[in-house]
Amino acid sequence: MNLNDRLPNGLLLLGCGNMGSAMLQGWLNQGLLPENVWVIDPQPSDWVRSTGVHINTDLPAQVSVALLAVKPQMMREALPKLSPLSQSDTVFLSIAAGTSIETYEEILGSASIIVRAMPNTPAAIGQGITALIGNSLADEDALELSETLLSAIGQTVRLDRESQMDAVTGLSGSGPAYVFFLIDALAAAGRKQGLSETMAMALAKATVAGAGALAKQSELTPEQLRLNVTSPNGTTQAGLEVLMSENNGLVPLIKETVARATERSKELSNG
Predict the structure, then answer these.
(1) Short-list 180, 47, 65, 172, CA closest to 112
(2) CB neighbour class for 225 (10 Å; exposed up to 12, middle 13-18, buried from 19)
C-alpha cells in the first residue's frame, strides 16, 4: 500500500524546518502527492515552496497524521491551532524534544491519539534512527503508520515506556554531536603526528564513516570487529590501551557523557 492510501485524509506538518523538510522530501520521493500535504510554517524555505504542497492555507476538517515539528519552546503557542483536529481520528506524531505526551494531552485533549518520537540528525540523509512510543489511545495501527512515515528517514525502534526517551535523547539524539567531535579529535591528533590538515580530516571522516557502516552492516558484534583489527602487540593494541584504560579511558567518559545529556533532557522535560 502506498503512502496516499495509508494517508487517505492527507498529512499536516506543523513546522517544516530541517528535520520536517528531510521527512517531507522522503515522503514525496516515495510518491506522496503534494496536494495531500498541508504545511504550517511562518518562514517556509524556497524548497518547501517549490514542492507544490499547501502552505499556510485553511486547514482541512481532518488529516490522517499531523506531524508536530516546531521547536519545543514554540509548541504551546503553535499547537492550539490544531485543536479542531483533536476531535477526529488524527494521529499526532511529535518529533519535538522534551515535550511529554502529558503536555500534548493537556493542550489537545485527553481523547487525542499521540505518538512521541525522537529522531536524530542523520535523518537528513535517510540514515537516522528514531525511537517512538504512543499514549494509551495509540493502537497498533497508529504505531505502524507512524513507523511507516518515520522509516523514510531511517530505522525505528519502539520504547517500552516514555521515561526511556531521556536516555534515547542522551544516546542517539545527542550522539551524532559526540561522533562529530570524535572526527575533529582524530583529525587534530593526525595533524599532531605530521599529517596535513586536509589529509588528516579526510582520513578521520572516512575512518569513522566506514567503521560505522561496517558495524551497521556486519553480522559480527562491534567487539568482534574490534578484535579482528587488533593484532597482538600491534599498533591498534597500543592505541586501545589508552582508550580502554579503566580509570580515564573512553568507557567511563562515554558513560558520563550520556548520563549528563540524559539528566539534562529530564531537566528540560520537567521545566
Answers:
(1) 65
(2) middle
- Residue span(s) of the chain under CATH 3.40.50.720 come to 3-165
Rama region for 126: left / alpha / beta (φ>0; ψ in -120 to 50; rest): left
Q: Which CATH superfamily is domain 175-270 in?
A: ProC C-terminal domain-like (1.10.3730.10)
User: The domain 3-165 is classified under which CATH number: 3.40.50.620, 3.30.870.10, 3.40.50.970, 3.40.50.720?
Assistant: 3.40.50.720
Q: How far apart are CA 246 and CA 255, in angstroms?
A: 12
Question: 113-118 and 128-134: which strand pairing?
Answer: antiparallel
Between CA 167 and CA 182 the distance in angstroms is: 20
Please tell me the distance from the alpha carbon of residue 5 to that of residue 3, in angstroms, as a whole number: 5
Amino acid in the structure at residue 128: G
Beta strands 65-68 and 91-94 are: parallel
pLDDT tens-place values along the chain, 271 residues long: 589 999 999 999 999 998 899 899 989 998 999 999 999 999 999 999 999 999 999 988 899 999 999 988 888 888 988 988 887 899 999 998 888 999 999 999 999 999 999 999 999 888 999 999 999 999 999 999 999 999 988 999 999 999 999 999 999 999 999 999 999 999 999 999 999 999 999 999 999 999 999 999 999 999 999 999 999 999 999 999 999 999 899 999 999 999 999 999 888 877 6
Exposed e or buried b for every residue in 196-213, given b needs 16+ CB within 10 A?
A: eeeebbeebeeeeeeeee
Q: Is 110 left (phi over 0), alpha (psi -120 to 50) or beta?
A: alpha
